[in-house]
Specification:
With 211 residues, this protein is α/β, with parallel strands linked by helices. The chain contains eleven helices and five strands; from the N terminus they run βαβαβαβαβααααααα. The protein is globular and about 55 Å long.
Length: 211
């Protein structure tokens, strides 16, 4: 049987090392790559398609939710497990909306992490009772399609700078991002606002009180 290939995306090396140590207990698991930020994860997935991607939410450049949203548009078949310290409902809801097949907290027992990886790799979803209860309580928020565009905090920041007339290079320098990352955010903003140029972006952003 082929091994289950896994990518780990977390900006803390010690956390990644700890996850690797746990996963290596199962000889059916193979760690094929690591990323310490969302942009690096996106670049890795241009060349590798693993069975499962373990992703943290709090990462620089693209956070985990932003990375999932971007990657799911490119390849809807990617399978994500969010592994994070955030247990707030808003993070769980946004992760599910972004395409997560499982949501685990970092205090998870190894056996549950192992079960989640196997379940998600097999094409199913895995949510433990704690997360499932939060999902049920917030079912309306998970299933509803909001009329207004839902921009991430980073997209809002970049949107404001675009409205101020800054170039992609200046925005990249201001937020310590690559120009490519800024351009990707701009494309995502335009898609979410259904705008075709900068003038339309600014007009719709003002109408929706995003800036």
């Amino acid at each position: 049987m082929d091994k289950i290939s896994i990518i780990i995306a977390d900006d803390h090396r010690l956390i990644r090392d700890g996850i690797k140590t746990l996963l290596k207990k199962d000889t059916d698991f193979e760690i094929v790559a690591e990323a310490d930020n969302g942009e690096e994860l996106i670049n890795i997935l241009n060349t590798i398609t693993p069975d499962v991607i373990l992703v943290d939410i709090s990462m620089p450049k693209f956070n985990g939710i932003e990375a999932m949203m971007t990657l799911k548009k490119i390849n809807p078949n990617l399978k994500f497990i969010v592994l994070t310290m955030h247990e707030e409902p808003e993070y769980i809801i946004k992760s599910i909306q972004a395409g997560a097949s499982s949501y685990l907290l970092k205090n998870v027992e190894y056996e549950e992490l192992q079960k989640a990886v196997r379940t998600v790799a097999g094409g199913a979803k895995y949510f433990n009772p704690f997360i499932s209860n939060i999902m049920i309580e917030n079912l309306a928020k998970i299933t509803e399609k909001e009329e207004q565009a839902v921009l991430t905090p980073r997209e809002i920041e970049i949107l404001k700078e675009v409205a101020n007339g800054l170039s992609a290079k200046l925005i990249a320098d201001k937020f310590s991002l690559s120009v490519r990352t800024v351009e990707t955010h701009r494309v995502n903003i335009m898609k979410k606002l259904n705008a075709h140029n900068t003038a339309e972006v600014i007009k719709k952003a003002i109408e929706q009180k995003l800036i």
